[in-house]
Every structure is written in structure tokens, then in C-alpha cells.
């Protein structure tokens, strides 16, 4: 058992990671920018800011592992790239904690600014000199639902032709990260995806049916490198499908929810 710092510990994944780590008997501390978000049960809070470096020295003091879940697509340079560098520097100053980092399947193949930032964070970890484990996962069910709901509110629902998604149970990813802490092995783990690879159009139609909406779904051929990468399956890990809930099981497990109005 060890003391573990979880960055992003109040987020969707971070809270599940904290739960898995405490269940394994670890002492858990989360890095938080302030007291606004209540911490998960049974964990301590260390106030620090990846975007400035304030408080990082105290946050990493005495920990044997760091599970790095913090990310911000709106400020990926400050948080995912520079913030990761600051975290690693603080960790090197206090010893050699094992860094376990969650990334995204396709960061090396899908040319978006956010994915480039995630890839740069991976590179920083690789050259840090610290023992490190990196796990790339596909999109969580919750992310897929948010994406679907954003377009499903429109009178005519556009989706990219040929695009598929492999949504994964967030608890499954949290368990893999906690297992990496327990094993202590420094490695790049195989990419992991959900139990099903589904056309985006099918996810949208199922969500519309689930909400009792009847709207036409229009599959559009989108231009550009990002769309081409999605058609090629760069966001998928079909050879390493996890257990956990399917998309249908995820929808069935939620409280009945209406689609947001357009």
C-alpha cells in the first residue's frame, strides 16, 4: 500500500480512481485548485494549480505514486503540457514516485490541438526519468452521450459519415489505473476501448429512440484530416475491448432524461 496523489481527483474519472485506490487500501490525496468541489469520501485535499505550479511541491511530498487525470481541452497548453511538466519537475524534487497517466486512443493519429497537447504530455512523461505508466483509453460513455445530445437537439441531425466510436465504462478505466499503481510496473499499457465499436449514426438513432424523438439523421461526408482519421478508426482499440457496460446498458442505467431543446 502506498500514498497516492490523484490530479483531477474531483472529475468524472478522478473520483472513480480515488474510489478504486481507497478500496485497495491506499492513502489517497487529490490535487485541487480550491475548495469549491467537495473531495471524494475518505481522501485528503492538497490545494495546488497545474497551470501556475503553485502548491505542487506540497502536493507531491511523501507520495509513492501520482495518477495524473487532470486535463483541460480549453487550456490544453497551460494544463496538459506545461502543467504536466510542472508536476513532473515537482515530483523529481521529492524522489521517484511512479507516474500513472491516462491519455486518449488516437492522440498520435488524430490531428487536433487538444490531441497534440495530450501527445506532448506523454512525451514529457517519457523523458522525465521517472518510472511511468501510460494508458490510452477511448471515450467514456458520458462523453459520447454529451456529444450525441449536442447534435440530437437539431431538427435535422448531422453526423460524420463512416465515423465510429468505442465508448468505455469510466469505472473500467479507473480500475486499470488503480491496478497500474498496485503493480508498480513502468510501461506503456495496451490501448483500451469499450466492449463495442458502434457507428456514430447508430448511437444518435438509439438516443433519439430512447428519448422518444423522431428526427432524420443525415450522414455527411466530412473533408479534412481529422474526419479521415476517424473514418480510418484512429480513435478505436478493437483488438483490446474491455468489459464493463455496453452503450445500451449505460443508457438503461441512467435516470430517464429528456434531450435538451434546441
UniProtKB/TrEMBL annotation:
Domain NAD(P)-binding: 8-142
InterPro entries on file: ComplexI_NDUFA9_subunit, NAD(P)-bd_dom, NAD(P)-bd_dom_sf
Matching SUPFAM superfamilies: NAD(P)-binding Rossmann-fold domains (SSF51735)
One GO molecular-function entry: protein-containing complex binding
Residue ranges of the region described as Disordered: 240-262
A Pfam family per the record: NAD_binding_10
PANTHER family, alphabetized: NADH DEHYDROGENASE [UBIQUINONE] 1 ALPHA SUBCOMPLEX SUBUNIT 9, MITOCHONDRIAL, NADH-UBIQUINONE OXIDOREDUCTASE 39 KDA SUBUNIT-RELATED
Protein known as: Uncharacterized conserved protein YbjT, contains NAD(P)-binding and DUF2867 domains
Lineage of origin: Bacteria, Bacillati, Actinomycetota, Actinomycetes, Geodermatophilales
Amino acid at each position: 500500500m502506498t500514498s497516492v496523489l490523484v490530479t483531477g481527483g474531483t472529475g468524472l474519472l478522478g473520483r472513480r480512481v480515488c474510489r478504486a485506490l481507497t478500496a485497495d487500501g491506499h492513502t489517497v490525496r487529490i490535487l485541487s485548485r480550491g475548495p469549491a468541489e467537495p473531495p471524494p469520501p475518505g481522501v485528503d485535499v492538497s490545494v495546488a494549480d497545474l497551470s501556475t505550479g503553485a502548491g505542487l511541491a506540497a502536493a507531491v511530498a511523501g507520495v509513492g505514486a501520482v495518477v495524473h487525470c487532470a486535463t483541460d481541452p480549453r487550456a490544453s497548453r497551460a494544463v496538459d503540457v506545461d502543467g504536466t511538466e510542472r508536476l513532473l519537475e515537482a515530483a523529481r524534487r521529492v524522489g521517484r514516485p511512479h507516474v500513472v497517466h491516462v491519455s486518449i486512443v488516437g492522440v498520435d493519429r488524430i490531428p487536433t490541438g487538444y490531441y497534440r497537447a495530450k501527445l506532448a504530455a506523454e512525451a514529457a512523461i517519457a523523458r522525465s526519468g521517472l518510472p511511468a505508466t501510460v494508458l490510452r483509453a477511448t471515450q467514456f460513455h458520458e462523453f459520447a452521450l454529451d456529444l450525441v445530445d449536442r447534435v440530437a437537439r437539431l431538427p435535422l441531425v448531422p453526423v460524420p459519415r463512416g465515423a465510429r466510436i468505442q465508448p468505455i465504462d469510466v469505472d473500467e478505466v479507473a480500475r486499470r489505473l488503480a491496478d497500474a499503481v498496485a503493480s508498480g510496473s513502468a510501461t506503456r499499457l495496451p490501448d483500451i476501448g469499450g466492449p463495442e465499436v458502434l457507428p456514430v449514426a447508430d448511437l444518435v438513432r438509439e438516443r433519439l429512440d430512447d428519448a422518444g424523438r423522431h428526427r432524420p439523421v443525415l450522414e455527411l461526408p466530412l473533408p479534412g484530416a481529422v474526419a479521415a482519421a476517424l473514418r480510418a478508426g484512429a480513435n478505436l482499440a478493437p483488438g483490446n475491448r474491455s468489459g464493463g457496460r455496453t452503450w445500451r446498458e449505460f443508457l438503461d442505467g441512467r435516470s430517464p432524461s429528456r434531450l435538451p431543446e434546441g
